[in-house]
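Assess this:
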Amino acid sequence: METLDNKNQAVRLAVSATRGTSTLQPEAFSRIGEASSLEGMGQLSIRHITAADLDLEKMRLEGAMTRLKYRQEDNEKQRQHEERMAQLRLQARSRSIGEELRELFQPQNQYALFFFCFIFIHVIYTAKELAFYFITKHHLFCFVLLLYFLCKKIFLDCKGQKN
């Protein structure tokens, strides 16, 4: 009888392997559960446990251990990420806007310094050219604007001396 059971299981494994289906049959799980429950009572029978059942149980346990290992690694990575984000939030809160701007404009290397100088020089040059262009095209408007600010300054100075 024992050899018939083993032959039937071997045939099922071969058929499922040729079909491409899973070799983990429900009866293998029931036999493993049955074997573990009988083992506790001391009534374990050798004919119920085969090498395939032991291999299946070993593979199942290895899979469970692998899943636990990866879950532990993921939890550790998540914890480290949360710690880093908390540190960044604390650093961001502790710095003022002036410190952040100073850090932003402080060059990291010589190429960044060259780039900042290049931009600064071109901004000054462009502003100067725009001012001269505006003066040459609208010289009358600039003259009136200059007179307005001059009169305003004189008026405020006179008013300040009377008080």
User: Anything to note?
Assistant: The helical segments are 2-19, 26-41, 51-94, 97-105, 110-137, 139-162. Confidence is low (pLDDT under 50) at residues 20-29. Residues 109-162 form one domain. The chain has six helices and no strands.
